Model the fold of this input.
Amino acid sequence: MKKQQIQKATKDNPYLLINHKYIQIYTDGGKVYQQEQIVDVIAGKFIQRITEIPNADPYSLKRMKCGTLKDKNNVFATRLTKNSPPETIKTEFGVINNPNAIYEYYAIPGIDGKSFKAIKEEYDTIYYQDKNAIFYGFEKMENADRESFEYLDFCYARDKNFVFCKDNVIEIDTHNFKLNNNGFIYDDKNIFHYEHQVFLDAKTFEVLGCVKGTYDGVSAEGFIFNGTFIVKDKNGEYLYDSKTNNLTDK
Done:
């Protein structure tokens, strides 16, 4: 039924492929394009933006939960056109998205659209894979082994060879480490809080609590993963500020 409706679509009678809140994607039988409602804060109104999705296959095009569009061949992303106004502007409301910015869709080179998927839940990962490789966002991770790669938590992952923070290899034993509720990952030699190394004794390292965290009122045993932590090793207790990566005596 869908195939027949797509085949019958015309410019005067386009077929709606995807309908998501303020975004609709249509085909007119020849092209696929996105129609989007943009808020113009300065003018106090909605404006309509229409963007073609070049070479998109209307029969297999889908919107992933993370918002990315893909079809049987490609994964699509947006970028500013060469002659577009700036992406953001300064106003009395602060820095806002520029309603006059002009975007274009393009097929991302080197990604197989048919097999592209999130490593874990699409809302809870920064890692993706296709039949050939692992990706951090849309960037191929050259050091990652696709067959053994797994997402851990926070922004960490590992494979049979390495532990990763985002798309960077960190010096943690991939076969013997601990990852706690506060985002600290450590083995017998090294400690990291995301991409920052914490220079304490790894064998005796502990997180005792949190002075100031991302979520006020939540204990360090809960969901605090940024802020000032009370930590210790065999030599004493310290305050570790995750925003500055500073370590001071308590």
About this structure: The first helix runs from residue 2 to 8.
